[in-house]
């Protein structure tokens, strides 16, 4: 009896024959991978070059910036540390940014939850008004806030312009939009059935908010605190019309120093700000991975 062959068409033994004209996978050359990596490295270098240049400039020995420098020194950091305007401005900016970040995040989270979870007349208009500081130029916002404070002082018979409280309120208005954008985007991705399940299991509204909703929003909240702190700490346009006599933030102190001096002291102060903000980001990444936030 003749044995019937059970091999499929195009197969001989253990060798698979591909049909003629079928596409074949061409391996990527090694040089292509290295070119891609080099391109990415150049992009990162281009983005970080201003920071690298500022830090490098802060160690120049010459008071007048020249290339190549005649030497390197840390005396400009000592000069910045001994300058009372920089020290006082740094402390005021630090306090102002911390208060603005905390206040802006609290109000921004509340506003985001209200706009995302409830329907009421004027909801869209309210959301657009709260986001206006993102599109209004800073100097325009600063002058408008100054004029509003003057009218409020006449109506309330109390000092607002030049006070720390007035600065905090203005900076909170500046930081609320950042919180709303970040938290609002996270709320849109949260499954509402999880909150409904918590309510069905007996959790009240506040317990659901504290134990379910806010933990799910933690990456967005941390990002909002980080960006709000940076925006408030570095702000100049809004702060300039509102500071009182003898009180300056660090950006204003830098601007006033540049009116009469042009040496690497400003680069030293800027390098210190870069290090401070880098530490803030590293601490943030320790508790909440920035890859989950950005």
Automatic annotation (TrEMBL):
<protein>
    <submittedName>
        <fullName>ABC transporter permease</fullName>
    </submittedName>
</protein>
<keyword id="KW-0472">Membrane</keyword>
<feature type="transmembrane region" description="Helical">
    <location>
        <begin position="34"/>
        <end position="59"/>
    </location>
</feature>
<keyword id="KW-0812">Transmembrane</keyword>
<keyword id="KW-0997">Cell inner membrane</keyword>
<feature type="transmembrane region" description="Helical">
    <location>
        <begin position="160"/>
        <end position="180"/>
    </location>
</feature>
<feature type="transmembrane region" description="Helical">
    <location>
        <begin position="265"/>
        <end position="284"/>
    </location>
</feature>
<dbReference type="Pfam" id="PF00528">
    <property type="entry name" value="BPD_transp_1"/>
</dbReference>
<dbReference type="GO" id="GO:0055085">
    <property type="term" value="P:transmembrane transport"/>
</dbReference>
<dbReference type="InterPro" id="IPR035906">
    <property type="entry name" value="MetI-like_sf"/>
</dbReference>
<keyword id="KW-1003">Cell membrane</keyword>
<keyword id="KW-1133">Transmembrane helix</keyword>
<keyword id="KW-0813">Transport</keyword>
<dbReference type="GO" id="GO:0005886">
    <property type="term" value="C:plasma membrane"/>
</dbReference>
<comment type="similarity">
    <text>Belongs to the binding-protein-dependent transport system permease family.</text>
</comment>
<feature type="domain" description="ABC transmembrane type-1">
    <location>
        <begin position="90"/>
        <end position="287"/>
    </location>
</feature>
<feature type="transmembrane region" description="Helical">
    <location>
        <begin position="90"/>
        <end position="116"/>
    </location>
</feature>
<feature type="transmembrane region" description="Helical">
    <location>
        <begin position="128"/>
        <end position="148"/>
    </location>
</feature>
<feature type="transmembrane region" description="Helical">
    <location>
        <begin position="216"/>
        <end position="233"/>
    </location>
</feature>
<dbReference type="InterPro" id="IPR000515">
    <property type="entry name" value="MetI-like"/>
</dbReference>
């Amino acid at each position: 009896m003749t044995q019937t062959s059970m091999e499929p068409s195009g197969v001989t033994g253990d060798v698979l024959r591909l049909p003629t004209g079928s596409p074949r996978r061409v391996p990527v050359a090694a040089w292509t991978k290295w070119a891609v990596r080099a391109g990415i490295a150049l992009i990162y270098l281009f983005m970080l070059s201003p920071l690298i240049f500022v830090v490098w400039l802060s160690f120049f020995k010459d008071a007048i910036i020249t290339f190549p420098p005649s030497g390197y020194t840390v005396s400009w950091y000592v000069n910045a540390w001994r300058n009372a305007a920089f020290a006082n401005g740094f402390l005021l900016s630090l306090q102002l940014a911390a208060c603005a970040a905390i206040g802006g995040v609290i109000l921004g989270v509340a506003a985001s939850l209200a706009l995302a979870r409830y329907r009421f007349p004027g909801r869209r208009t309210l959301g657009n008004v709260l986001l206006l500081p993102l599109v209004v130029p800073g100097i325009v916002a600063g002058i408008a806030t100054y004029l509003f404070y003057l009218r409020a002082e006449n109506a309330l018979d109390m000092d607002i312009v030049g006070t720390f409280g007035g600065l905090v309120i203005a900076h909170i208005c500046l930081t609320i939009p950042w919180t709303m954008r970040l938290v609002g985007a996270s709320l849109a991705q949260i499954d509402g059935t999880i909150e409904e399940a918590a309510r069905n299991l007996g959790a009240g509204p506040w317990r659901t908010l504290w134990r379910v909703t806010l933990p799910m929003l933690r990456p967005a909240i941390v990002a909002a605190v980080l960006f709000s702190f940076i925006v408030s700490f570095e702000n100049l346009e809004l702060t300039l019309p509102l500071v009182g006599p003898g009180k300056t933030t660090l950006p204003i102190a830098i601007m006033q120093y540049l009116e009469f001096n042009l040496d690497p002291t400003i680069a030293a102060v800027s390098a210190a700000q870069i290090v401070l903000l880098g530490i803030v980001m590293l601490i943030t990444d320790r508790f909440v991975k920035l890859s989950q936030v950005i």
